[in-house]
């Protein structure tokens, strides 16, 4: 921050500054303001100011740039070569947007200036004045000082019942100041949220020179005595209500907290439907200091980097098999894998995604705040920027969406922080080496699978059953394939503690499980909400006591009116990106169009991207038996060898398996489909559509298959488990 700058310099050195002429007839009607405008290095007008500037064409210079949505501008006016900057939705935030645009010019070295002087913005409508103040608050820590110059009333608020303005004289030279140049005989105070005018005589000159506490009704006006006091001072002394007023909450039709799958989809859809949307997203860094950009878990530390690593491992396998198809020159002993190249590719891809999201938000006119959100009393949201400046801004909206997702859990044991989680894994700078993956859910097994495929020595610690919620026949084959690809499985123990041992991690297991050294320990035993920062207690949104997740109904409504929740943060919802996306989109439709559509939770397909993928939709055999009884269902299944495995004699063919579960009544309705094999996700997507609509086993059997492919194995299913017949597929073309 340029602490040497004195706001008075705007009178003496305008030639190094940008002047922004803000709407209508501001303090710029004063001769001083016109002089400043004319001598400024750059002149920027908001579209609302153009008519006024045009009227005064004889005494004021034409602006270099005009910012706005150009709704209110007189179409006949010749804009005379000024740069036209389209800023959508001009209202409370027009000044902020215009200042941001000027700062962008500076950052991109297109313009060079020392400060920004805003002409006007402090007289006229109360909410406009508050908006100007809140803009100043936002830029108070900015490198480039922003000063507002105006005449007439300075509007500011005092806490209810207060009549004293406290000014710390030592702080009065901060650069972010307000200078009412010809102060009229009134100062506006406000009580609580009500706006009341009180005319109080005021002598600012005395205020600065004699006392640091001013009793407002004793002050006398002295015209042209400049007052310089900072927003910082006002903020630090004001009571919460007044503080809120001073910050003049920026109002949106929808505020979305969390820029992951759910939050992005909801905000984009709402903006398409014409809503004014703010999206707030920031990432709490991992204990290793890693943080990422907008896009949430999926784009940064979830589905996308995971799938890239999964693919990298599959490519390695293909390389090993290529010779069988006649590819020469692949000396297997020379093929190695470079972890850093892969993690760089992942990093580049993630950064690319972040950029795309930001562009999309900008194109749709969504205000993106890289900030943390916190609920304050009264249901408004205070955001604090994620950068070092920690700038606070108050937002308000009748519709607030919480889509803050989950973060990996660290165990509560000594040395837990010596391990990492999936949040750190994909961009790890050093090759993981000998790795212990703790957990038996899909994240753990997927990580173990691709790490083994990338030639790492991997062990998985499975405390109880792996992939508990999946069909257990299928899980058996997935686990067997993992073992056959070199993944060791340590069962029925837990980690007691971790110690540092040189650059290794010494892991102590429970139940006399011994001690083992690893290069990397990955905790992948569940994910949990991190809600402390949000201060939900300030508004009373109800959560599940055990999981900490938010309780929401089928319309995504929480226990508090106007506050909604979607995605992983909602209790009882499958933790999947497409579900979060659809929930967000449908919520926006319900809020901003006449839609009543809600998400249908039946028949959501999902895939575990282990080396041999497992994809599934509907009930597992275990669930179907529980629901319909053993005699109520028929299970069709088969072991098959994918066509592409035959020539290279890929032994993974031993673990490929397909299962369809249907009702044992006249409907023969299919209630579950399960597939273990290559490209399982691709196979299952189409079946999931059919499943959602409703199909019988004969619908499958009577469909003419696509041949040759693995997907046709569903169509070819004939053998039931009950028959006890051999479910292995023999032959291939007839
Ligand atoms: P998130 O995407 O997690 O986004 C929440 C955002 O809110 C984050 O950016 C967070 O930093 C931000 N936030 C939190 N608190 C605040 C606050 N107070 N202020 C501002 N911002 C805040 N799903 C699939 O469908 N397929 C897969 O293959 C798949 N693979 C996965 C692999 C891994 C390793 C992991 C961890 C997850 C995977 N998932 C997968 C799950 C998927 O990533 C999530 O279901 C999805 O991202 C949830 O979206 P969301 O919008 O609920 O939350």
List the helices and strands and how they pair.
Blueprint: H1 9-12, E1 17-21, H2 31-39, E2 42-46, H3 50-55, E3 65-68, E4 83-86, H4 94-107, E5 115-119, H5 126-138, E6 146-155, E7 164-166, E8 178-188, H6 204-210, E9 213-215, H7 231-237, H8 240-247, E10 250-251, E11 254-257, H9 261-272, E12 277-280, H10 296-301, H11 303-321, H12 339-363, E13 367-369, E14 371-375, E15 381-385, E16 392-396, E17 400-402, E18 407-408, E19 420-421, H13 422-425, E20 435-438, H14 442-453, E21 458-462, H15 472-484, E22 488-491, E23 495-501, E24 504-509, E25 515-518, E26 520-523, E27 527-528, E28 563-565, H16 577-592, E29 606-608, E30 613-618, H17 621-628, E31 633-639, H18 643-646, E32 657-663, E33 670-677, H19 680-693, H20 697-702, H21 712-715
Parallel strand pairs: 1-2, 1-5, 2-3, 3-4, 5-6, 6-8, 10-16, 11-12, 11-17, 12-13, 17-28, 19-26, 20-21, 20-26, 21-22
Antiparallel strand pairs: 7-9, 14-15, 15-16, 18-27, 23-24, 24-25, 29-30, 30-33, 31-32, 32-33
Helix pairs in contact: 9-16, 11-12, 11-14
The chain binds flavin-adenine dinucleotide.
GO biological process, one term: thiamine diphosphate biosynthetic process
Domain Thiamin pyrophosphokinase thiamin-binding: 161-227
Keywords: ATP-binding, Disulfide bond, FAD, Flavoprotein, Kinase, NADP, Nucleotide-binding, Oxidoreductase, Redox-active center, Transferase
